[in-house]
Amino acid sequence: MIRSMILEYKIAHQDWIYLIPMVQSSLNHTAVPSLGNKAPVELFTGLPCPTPLKDFYLPGTGEFKELPACDKIDGFLDGLRSSIHAMHNVVDDQRLKQRLLNKKRERGENVVNFTEGDYVLRSRVDEKKTHKLLVTWVGPFRVVRADAHSFLIKHLITGAELDIHASRLKFYADASLDVTEELLEHISSQGIILAVEKLKDHRWNDAIGDFEILVQWRGLEAIEDSYEPLTSLARDIPILVNQYVTTADQEFQAHWQRAPTIGETQQHERSIATETTAGQESPAAQASTTASALYN
């Protein structure tokens, strides 16, 4: 403060001592929240604290004028102090919240930094060729309700609501987000369903221990063709796969004949479930048998 006043009044540095009375007067006549919005001079002397604007210089007249007393000025100053104090409280609360979130993150806990009305991204797990799970963030979604351990989110296009755990969500934007046409177009492209135009070629993949078929997608360019696992295609489009097998080489046909078909696998699972159910008595039958034994 002293250095700033020296530059402001353009005095020598060795004359800083003459500025001390001005600094003391400013401190003694300034109301502070720690003293109940009172100035030190009021508490020590019991006298009303004069405002610094009581005397002012009017350039047009070249004289000092005295500001008349007005009760509204004190009210305005009190309102200003309250407003500044409330603003500082918001800053302090946000700083404390961020500090607590940082501590949680250091401990490895799940950090939730969004609430109702905000927009979040949802993690979608896709099965990859190596049988590993890859998380893809899709959205954004709007948070509708906050529960104890999960959040209810709403799709911006379809309006469908999903109950998702907090660990599967990530903050995207607050409630003031402007949902534009470009954003909606981006969201709609995330759930696109592709139709198979033709099965073109195949190759062996050592990582999954199965063949992959090169798929041409309807409506897409040839550069966008992709290899998909034979097992997945046999489950989704069995007729097209059977047609392709008839035109493939002998190695591929032999592998297809050794592999169980989708229908056989489902029939085998149903037979196992039937045998398991038949080998166990229902709770009602067990209770009836027990009652008969006790009666006899």
TrEMBL record:
This is Chromo domain-containing protein. Residues 194-244 form the Chromo domain. SUPFAM superfamilies: Chromo domain-like. The lineage of its organism: Eukaryota, Sar, Stramenopiles, Oomycota, Peronosporomycetes. Residues 263-296 are annotated as: Disordered. Coiled coil: none annotated. Residues 284-296 have a biased composition (Low complexity).
